[in-house]
Design a protein that fits this description.
A 3-stranded antiparallel beta sheet has the order 3-4-7, with no helix packed on it. Strands 1-2 form a two-stranded antiparallel ribbon. It has helices at residues 14-26, 87-109, 156-169, 171-178; strands spanning 8-9, 12-13, 38-43, 46-51, 54-56, 59-61, 68-72, 114-124, 143-152. A hairpin with a 2-residue loop joins strand 5 (54-56) and strand 6 (59-61). The chain is α+β, with helices and mostly antiparallel strands. It is globular.
């Protein structure tokens, strides 16, 4: 009996990565996930989200032993007390994190060893819309720019291809660029 040593590339177990992809091809129902967050207001602009359990691969996933607590707020210029990044900044973080993770996974699958992945994101917004001062500006970002600096053991062209493929596969990039239906209810 022979054993195959796992291949870890960029901190990703590529054997598990390929096995997961193969499993999802044969059992697509396992690809249904539901992520959840609860949020509570703590006063002023301060609120806190809690994230723990989620639904994945046909059942409730309770593998997380601790919940994540994420505080949000606003800077003083927007009437807050800096209790956390504001929601728009969290959106930039979510986009950066998803694109970065996807770059790492794509590079790992394509046998590219990464040295570094860094990004700078900017979101341009006219807050008069969100504050109800003027109906002309939209309430959210008018534009988001993302600039990546990626280095690794591949030519620049190959690294650009990895970033482009990651852009095509990033869940958050898809949600931001294509929108997603949101239902708001009051209970």
């Amino acid at each position: 009996m022979s054993t195959v040593a796992p291949t870890i590339r960029n901190g990703v177990d590529t054997g598990t990565l390929y096995a997961t992809l193969d499993l999802l091809k044969t059992q697509p129902e396992l690809g249904r996930f539901q992520f959840r967050a609860t949020n509570r207001w703590l006063g002023g602009a301060h609120n806190q989200s809690t994230i723990k359990e989620f639904y994945a691969a046909g059942g409730e996933d309770t593998s997380r032993t601790e919940a994540f607590q994420i505080d949000a707020g606003e800077p003083a210029i927007l009437l807050g007390t800096d209790t956390g990044a504001n929601p728009a900044e969290y959106l930039l973080h979510a986009l950066a994190a998803c694109l970065t993770t996807t770059i790492v996974y794509v590079a790992s699958a394509r046998k590219v060893e990464l040295t570094s992945v860094e990004s700078t994101l900017t979101g341009d917004m006219d807050v008069r819309g969100a504050l109800g001062v003027d109906d002309e500006p939209r309430n959210g970002f008018e534009r988001i720019t993302v600039a990546f600096r990626v280095t690794g053991n591949a030519p620049e062209e190959k690294l650009r291809e990895v970033v482009e493929r990651a852009k095509q596969r990033s869940a958050v990039y898809d949600m931001v660029t294509n929108g997603v239906p949101v239902e708001v209810t009051v209970q």
